[in-house]
Structure formats: structure tokens, C-alpha cells
Specification:
The chain is mainly alpha-helical. The chain is built from 20 helices and no strands.
Length: 538
């Protein structure tokens, strides 16, 4: 608990320091500095309101419909209105405290930079209370309506998928805007037009606009600012929304709670998945086939697992888009060298992308068995076959991802055939090594008691895996640097490859191959021995 509090405090201080510096720069910029600070506050309130809405929706869904103590409370002599307001308060507190805690340093930075008086902080408290109540009220009304359309458990899955889709949309939108153009002198005219557009007011119907206009005069005194008017709008709207949520709950809550007791229906058939399971199960060892079947079905039954494939697709799109907009003509180096050097370094970048996927999916593969691991060990499945089945399950999809990244990015860079061959072959063996590291170290640092696999990936074992993966990829890049440069010089300048250079190139490639083999087999052996020792200790 103390460590978590220390991390939160450091993060809080980091937020405060970052906004303090940014606002200081804005204040020093004459003419449009205050405009930027004002717009930034509006964006902050809008962001907080969006986060609060989603957080309140998820929390209200659990508090009103999925909490285990609801059956007992409904059987007790508790008035429905009292139950609603207690759950409403619980939703408000659980959803808002973290947003308020991490938003507070930003508003504190505003107050210190603009040397605000006591009135600013009083207004901040007066604005925050109805702002939080309004977000909770809207979320509760939305949940009441949604649960009467879908079962509560299905609603939770839908909300999770919507959140993933929203993150992907924001990620793609931000990248396609190409913010790097703002540092290009040729784009200064567009920047000037952007700054001119900042003077246009925001939507007067958004709560974020009301909160900004109610609080801003506390920083920049303005005789014409209608701070009290906007505060009154915010407070009255929040009160009205809370009352409407109470009336809506009295009408819809009984039927919604009844539907929440229904089991989640299977709306999406999974015939392709079943066909894949049947195909693999018939062609593998019976014990391995049973394990593969279990892994694939578990993966697609858990929305938090397969929905991350959507994030992977977005990552690939952005990865390739970065190469498509790369303007190599701006640099003084020869295009030939620039293209192929970037392609060579791209090997390491693609390998790090695969490592980040491996730490999320491959490293927790052993721990994911939980206490069912002991059931698996009582089956006719040897420990060696257990680990290698995990390896063979994850290696092909990660190889496909890496090769897609490398081949398409190399085509966008228009590299030479030799560089295409070197990069594709190198990445192929790098992925095999990374999967071996992931499965093996997952056996060395198992956490069968963990309920959240994200905690396994971010634990000590995950940190060890990422460090070793970085060293492994870096060593491969360093060892291949000399042979690759020699090949490029031969293609670009016709430089002769002497027997000594050829021998040195062969030694480097052999060293890379030995390193790849060690990355596959050594961690797998260590993981097997560690699991065997753990079984002996139990």
C-alpha cells in the first residue's frame, strides 16, 4: 500500500510539474497565451467529463445490477428510493475519486501560474461538485435504459468493446492528423490558421463549457464574464439530472434487475473458431491437441483477450502508415543508404513490437492455467510437451505479425532484395527466440494465484522478460551490423568482399544463429526445471 501511494504521489507531482511548465510557457506568450490556456482548460474539462461518463457507466452497472449483495438488500426491508440513493452515492464516490485526484494538480497548477486568490479555489469546489453529480446522473440513466435492452452481463461486454473501439478511433485519429507537421516550416501558414481558429467559442451546451466559463474568471478577472450564470446552469442541470435518474430508476430498475439475473446469450456463433479447433486437434498429439483446444476456446470466450486483436490491427496500420509518410527526400544522405539503414533498424523496432505482444500474451501463458495447472499435470501430458505445446501455439501468429510488419514496411521503403532477405530471415528467428524467452521465463516466474494476467505481465518476471528481450534484440542487431554494412557497400559501390571479410561475416551470422538457438532452448529448459522443482516443493 505504501509503494502504491508513493507511485501515485510521484505521478501526481509529475502531472503538476508538466502542466505548471506548459502554462508558464503559455503565460509568457503574448497575444495568444491566454487563449491557449483557456482552450486547454476547456479540453481538460471535456476529457474529465468523458472519462467520468464511461467510469460511471461501468461502476453503475456493477453497483445497481451485478453486485453480489443486491439479492440480500432486495430481500431486506429497505425502501427502493433509499437503495437508489445509496447506490448512486457509491457510484459517484467509486468513479470520481481517482479522476478528481489526478485532475486536482492541473487546476492547482493553473492557480499558481496565474496567482489566483481564494475565490478561484472556492469556485473550483463549487464547480466540481455539480460536475461530478451530472456525470453520474447521466451514466445511471444510460445504464437503466441499456440494461432493459440487453442483459447486464452482455451489456458489460458491449461496453468493453465500445471502449476498445473508442481507444482505437482516438489513436488512429491522432496519428492521421500528423502532428509532426507543426514543426515543419512549410506548414507555418496552417499553424497560424489554427491559432486563429482557437478564438472561436466552444459549444455552449456542453457541461465542460459551463465549468470552464464558471472557473476561468477566477484566473483572469473579466467584468463581462458571467461566472455566476454558468455556475447556476451547471448546478441546476446536475440537480435536475439526479432527480430524473431517480424517477427513471423507479420506473425501469425492477425490470432491469430481473433481466440482469438472466444468463448471457451467445449472439455470435464461432463456427470458424470451432473449425480451427477441430483442424488442429486432429493433427496434433492427443494430449497436445486437448491443450490447444482449451487455449483457443478460452481465448475467444474472453472478450478482454480477443478484443485486443483490434488494438493489434490498429498498431499495424499506424506502424505502416508511419513509413508511408516518411519523407526521405528532406535529408542530405543518399536515398539508398537511408532506405536500407532504416530498414535494418526496423528489424529491431519490429522485434520490440513483438516483444511487447509476447509479454502480454506469451509470458502469462503458464500462469494463466491458474490452479488448473495441477489438473493438467495429473493428465498424460509431460511437462516438456506442455511447454512446447504453448510454444508452438504462440509462435506462428507472432511470426505472421512480424513478417507482415517487415515485408510491407520494406516495400514502402523500396529496399534492395538482399536487405529484404536479411530482414525477413532475421525477424523470423528473432520471433522464435522471443517466444522461447516468453514461455520459458513464464515457467521460471509462474503466478498461478494471479486473477489478472495484466498483473503477471507487469510483475517482476515480466520486467525480466522485457530486459532480456531488449538485450537479445540489441545483440542480434549489433552482430549483424558489420555483415549488413558490407553487403550494402558491395551493392552501392561495388566494394570487393575479401576472404577475410567473408569469414568475419560468416562468423557474425553463426553467432546470431547460436544466440537465437540459445534464446529458444535455454529458457525453455530453465522453465521446465523450475516448474519441476516447484512441483517437488509442493
Amino acid at each position: 500500500l505504501g509503494a502504491m501511494a508513493l507511485v501515485a504521489l510521484i505521478f501526481w507531482i509529475g502531472i503538476f510539474y508538466g502542466f505548471f511548465r506548459v502554462l508558464g510557457y503559455f503565460q509568457a506568450a503574448e497575444g495568444f497565451g491566454h487563449i491557449l490556456a483557456h482552450k486547454l482548460m476547456g479540453m481538460l474539462w471535456l476529457t474529465l467529463f468523458s472519462v467520468l461518463l464511461f467510469s460511471n457507466v461501468v461502476t453503475a452497472l456493477s453497483a445497481f445490477f451485478l453486485s453480489k449483495d443486491l439479492e440480500t438488500l432486495h430481500a431486506a426491508p429497505v425502501a427502493g428510493e433509499s437503495l437508489f440513493w445509496s447506490r448512486f452515492t457509491m457510484t459517484l464516490a467509486d468513479s470520481s475519486w481517482m479522476v478528481f485526484f489526478f485532475g486536482l494538480p492541473v487546476f492547482l497548477a493553473y492557480g499558481l501560474v496565474y496567482r489566483a486568490g481564494l475565490l478561484y479555489y472556492l469556485k473550483l469546489a463549487a464547480v466540481s461538485a455539480p460536475f461530478l453529480v451530472l456525470a453520474t446522473s447521466l451514466a445511471v440513466m444510460f445504464v437503466m435504459l441499456l440494461v432493459n435492452v440487453f442483459p447486464a452481463r452482455r451489456t458489460k461486454d458491449i461496453l468493453f468493446l465500445l471502449a476498445v473501439a473508442l481507444v482505437i478511433l482516438l489513436y488512429l485519429t491522432f496519428r492521421f492528423i500528423r502532428p509532426e507537421r507543426l514543426v515543419n516550416p512549410n506548414e507555418f501558414a496552417n499553424v497560424a490558421g489554427y491559432l486563429a481558429s482557437l478564438r472561436t467559442p466552444g459549444s455552449p451546451f456542453l457541461p465542460s463549457h459551463w465549468a470552464t466559463e464558471a472557473l476561468w474568471p477566477g484566473l483572469i478577472p473579466d467584468a463581462f464574464a458571467e461566472s455566476g450564470f454558468y455556475l447556476a446552469i451547471l448546478a441546476s442541470t446536475a440537480a435536475a439530472a439526479a432527480v430524473m435518474a431517480s424517477f427513471l430508476a423507479a420506473w425501469l430498475y425492477p425490470s432491469g434487475f430481473s433481466k440482469s439475473q438472466e444468463g448471457a446469450r451467445r449472439f455470435i456463433t464461432r463456427h470458424p473458431v470451432d473449425a480451427l479447433v477441430h483442424f488442429l486437434g486432429k493433427r496434433l498429439h492427443p494430449a497436445s491437441g486437448a491443450l490447444v483446444t482449451k487455449e483457443i476456446k478460452t481465448f475467444f470466450r474472453d472478450n478482454t483477450q480477443w478484443s485486443q486483436l483490434l488494438l493489434l490491427v490498429a498498431l499495424i496500420v499506424i506502424y505502416l502508415y508511419n513509413f508511408s509518410v516518411l519523407d526521405l527526400g528532406r535529408y542530405p544522405l543518399r536515398i539508398f543508404w537511408l532506405q536500407n539503414v532504416i530498414a535494418f533498424l526496423n528489424i529491431g523496432l519490429a522485434a520490440f513490437v513483438v516483444a511487447s505482444l509476447a509479454v502480454r500474451f506469451v509470458f502469462p501463458a503458464v500462469s494463466q492455467e491458474g490452479f488448473s495447472y495441477w489438473i493438467i499435470r495429473s493428465s498424460p501430458l509431460s511437462l516438456k510437451r506442455f511447454l512446447w505445446t504453448k510454444y508452438l501455439l504462440f509462435a506462428p501468429p507472432l511470426v505472421v505479425v512480424a513478417e507482415v510488419l517487415i515485408v510491407l514496411s520494406n516495400q514502402l521503403l523500396n529496399v534492395t532484395p538482399s536487405m529484404m532477405a536479411v530482414s525477413t530471415i532475421t525477424v523470423f528467428f528473432l520471433v522464435l527466440g522471443l517466444v522461447g524467452l516468453g514461455v520459458g521465463l513464464g515457467g521460471v516466474y509462474p503466478r498461478f494465484e494471479a486473477e489478472n494476467m495484466t498483473a503477471v505481465a507487469t510483475g517482476f518476471g515480466g520486467l525480466v522478460f522485457m530486459v532480456l528481450s531488449a538485450l537479445y534484440v540489441a545483440l542480434v542487431i549489433v552482430l549483424e551490423a558489420y555483415p549488413v554494412i558490407t553487403l550494402l557497400r558491395f551493392e552501392a559501390q561495388g566494394a570487393a568482399v575479401t576472404p577475410a571479410k567473408a569469414v568475419l561475416m560468416a562468423v557474425c551470422f553463426l553467432a546470431v544463429m547460436g544466440l537465437n538457438l540459445a534464446a529458444v532452448f535455454l529458457p525453455m529448459r530453465l522453465g521446465r526445471l523450475r516448474l519441476k522443482a516447484r512441483e517437488a516443493e509442493e
